[in-house]
From TrEMBL, chain A:
This is Uncharacterized protein. The chain crosses the membrane at residues 21-44, 64-86, 106-126, 132-149, 156-173, 179-198. The keyword Transmembrane helix applies. Keywords: Membrane, Transmembrane, Transmembrane helix.
From TrEMBL, chain B:
Residues 16-94 form the Winged helix DNA-binding domain. This is Winged helix DNA-binding domain-containing protein. Gene3D superfamilies: Winged helix-like DNA-binding domain superfamily/Winged helix DNA-binding domain. The lineage of its organism: Bacteria, Pseudomonadati, Bacteroidota, Cytophagia, Cytophagales. It comes from Emticicia aquatica. It comes from the Bacteria. Signal peptide: none annotated. It holds the Pfam family HTH_34.
Amino acid sequence: MNEHLENLKEIRSLMERSSKFLSLSGLSGISAGVCALLGAWYAHQKIHIDALYLLFDPVVRQEIVPLLLIDAAFVLIGALLSGAFFTIRKARKQGLNVWNSTSKRLLNSMLVPLFAGGIFCLGLIYNGFFWIAFPATLVFYGIALVNASKYTVRDTYYLGMGEIVLGIISLFLARWNLIFWAAGFGVLHIVYGVVMYFKYDKITA
Amino acid sequence: MQILQNFNKAFESKARLGIMSVLMVNDEVSFIVLKDLLSMTDGNLATHLRALEEANYIAFKKEFIGRKPSTVYSVTDEGKKAFNEHLNELEKFIKGS
């Protein structure tokens, strides 16, 4: 009797563990964080301020906004490409195709909040609420992570919560907009990546 | 002990139950991932996989991931049916005692 109960418990835990996408590499987090820090540094070099709400002057804004959008696009592409590279590498080491049912579930659960968030932020910029777009990207990204954490390692839940908290604080401390953004997308990713690397990658690598 | 006779012999060991439960919730699982999840040795896992395969409960195919060969397992319809029946028996047994 006890043996059967044990077996059932084991079955349940295996079913749950095995339906998660476990090929996310810690190095992906680190590389995404580095991309974000480089992007934030470039933005700072260009505008010399951290408080983006100071960009009131329409003429200055017309000059700066396209530049920052291009900068942001580069960060996004760089983070996605490098992140995908390390995760595909880890999946291969595990003898897995990266495109499987667990990774599809994970991406699906992230896609909706990210897509809605992306459009929302573009809308903010379009309407001139430029500085709010920065905290908004943090909050939406955090929500996407929290949502996706059911389908991968639990750590992504805490990363997501961290992003949301930073985003919300930065809404009220608009002076440090850019710094909060760098902390969320840069530092937090790197910290998370290092933790993940030592927790999971070292064993299978 | 009569009820125990309905238990499927193919699922008698914990390892085989484990293999089946992982395959039930995933389309395909590689040998390496199975090994990792169940913390078994290569030889031990291979023996259990072969037994399940001979019962026609699982199927496998070899494919290349990059340049490395990988063996990927999946559960057959027959296997799904047998495993569900086994779980029902298990449930009955636990409720009954």
